[in-house]
Design goal:
- The chain has about 450 residues and is of the alpha/beta class.
- It has 2 domains: about 240 residues, Glucose-6-phosphate isomerase like protein, domain 1 (Rossmann fold, 3-Layer(aba) Sandwich); about 180 residues, 3-Layer(aba) Sandwich (Rossmann fold).
- Helix 7 runs parallel beside helix 8.
- The mean pLDDT is about 95.
Length: about 450
């Protein structure tokens, strides 16, 4: 441990530093040590509750990193589904998709065939998490349906957008004369049958003999990235699911070992975030990783933070960013706009990665400082320069330094952010696991379509 402002989290898989959120670094915009300590003190009961929830199994999320049976089931289901497949299509929205995309992106996006022969041999993966009629129509028309496989994820089994996608895919397959092949072309992930509840996805898929995996009933969508919901997309990209969970378990181990919230990095992050909100008027939390492979992680974080904490007039607005891209898009606002943003910069070890620049061409291009350097050297320099610039501007900034960009580190980072969010909810006095306003919009949508 490095004290309350810099924690080596999860066996040094990642190091969080919040010095840039304190008044010693940024002046009046930062928290005093006394204020931070006060918020940390308020988390002592919550820390004890999390430990008790682990021991009792009341909060299943805390036990997920120890499980292996569901990994075996995912591997078997995916192997069956991938047989003679060219494309794997994932239908699901919100928490049924974002966590899986964040994991799958670890192998790289927009890299034809992947980085190695094994990756090129796998089916291509496609994610359709936003419902758009034209997009869906054109996608289904473009697929070789006999070589396309569909994974449909809905915890409740009644998500209208996802069920619409599933019905359209079934229609397309039936219309192509492949009805007899449906059981090997589809896979569903949804809750098991529960007394007093209906599950349309389960009923529909069972009527066609489609295999189903059970969605954990005690883990909501935005917290399900390390369950089979996220593991299926991860495994489809060749990612080591056991290593992901090992990284997440390191965070749980740190939780169980912590004697005080200051000893537990997610608690320090929660105290910092809510303290800045309540004591310094911070209204937005910016997530800004410096690696393309963490781009979807920012989007996953947005749902996690917004849907968990935005209740009863509480919460702060999460903003997804990507460095260096958003240095040329949003950084001006963060540096010189209203003093209401806290920026989290996530740094991966990227120095030396990528093409090395020819010195003669650099001279001609006005890039003498890059002569002989790799592309990753520029990104690494920017990832350190931006936090320093924010400090000089008196703006709160937190950093995560990752030991590597691999499964263990990503599993640890995701578990850190999930527990940080839960603890922030405890400080705000809101339930981080429900989403009542979202449910209301679903009811109104159904009413409008019923009346039409």
């Amino acid at each position: 441990m490095e004290g309350a402002t810099g924690q080596a989290d999860a066996n040094a898989l990642l190091v969080q530093r919040i010095d840039g959120c304190l008044d010693k670094a940024i002046g009046e915009a930062g928290l005093s040590q006394a204020q931070l300590d006060a918020w940390l003190g308020k988390l002592q009961p919550a820390l004890a509750d999390l430990k008790a929830d682990y021991a009792s199994g009341k909060l299943p999320l805390l036990r997920v990193p120890e499980a292996t049976d569901d990994i075996v089931a995912c591997e078997a289901a995916l192997a069956h589904l991938s047989d003679r497949a060219h494309t794997l299509v994932f239908f699901g929205t919100g928490g049924s998709s974002l966590g899986g995309q964040a994991l799958a992106q670890l192998t790289g996006w927009n890299i034809p065939g992947g980085a190695d022969a094994a990756q090129r041999a796998r089916p291509r993966t496609r994610f359709y998490d936003n419902l758009d009629g034209l997009t869906l129509e054109r996608a289904l028309a473009s697929f070789d349906l006999a070589r396309t496989r569909f994974v449909v994820v809905s915890k409740s089994g009644g998500t209208p957008e996802t069920m619409t996608q599933a019905v359209c895919a079934l229609q397309a397959v039936i219309g192509s004369g492949l009805e007899q092949q449906i059981p090997r072309l589809f896979l569903g992930v949804t809750e098991p049958v529960q007394t007093g509840k209906t599950n349309a996805l389960r009923s529909l898929f069972e009527s066609y003999g489609i295999p189903l995996l059970d969605h954990h009933t005690g883990i909501g969508g935005r917290f399900s990235g390390l369950t089979n919901v996220g593991l299926l997309p991860a495994l489809s990209r060749g990612i080591d699911a056991r290593a992901l969970r090992a990284g997440a378990k390191a965070v749980i181990d740190a939780l169980l070992a912590a004697q005080h919230p200051r000893d537990f990095a997610p608690a320090v992050g929660a105290a910092m975030a809510i303290g800045l909100n309540k004591d310094r008027g911070i209204r937005a939390m910016v997530m800004m990783p410096y690696a393309d492979r963490l781009g979807k992680l920012s989007e996953w974080y947005v749902q996690l933070w917004a849907e968990s904490l935005g209740k009863d007039g509480q919460g702060t607005a999460p903003i997804p960013c990507l460095g260096p891209l958003d240095q040329h898009s949003q950084l001006q606002l963060f540096m010189d706009g209203p003093k209401e943003h806290c920026i989290t910069v996530v740094r991966a070890p990227v120095s030396g990665i990528g093409p090395r620049l020819d010195p003669e061409l650099c001279e001609k291009a006005g890039l003498a400082f890059m002569a002989g350097r790799a592309v990753g050297d520029l990104v690494a320099a920017q990832a350190h320069a931006v936090p320093e610039a924010l400090l000089r501007a008196g703006r709160p900034v937190r950093t995560f330094d990752l030991a590597g960009l691999d499964e263990r580190t990503l599993g640890a980072l995701m578990m850190h952010l999930m527990l940080e969010t839960i603890l922030a909810g405890r400080l705000l006095g809101v339930d981080p696991f429900d989403q009542p306003a979202v449910e209301l919009s679903k009811v109104i949508t159904r009413e409008r379509l019923t009346r039409a």
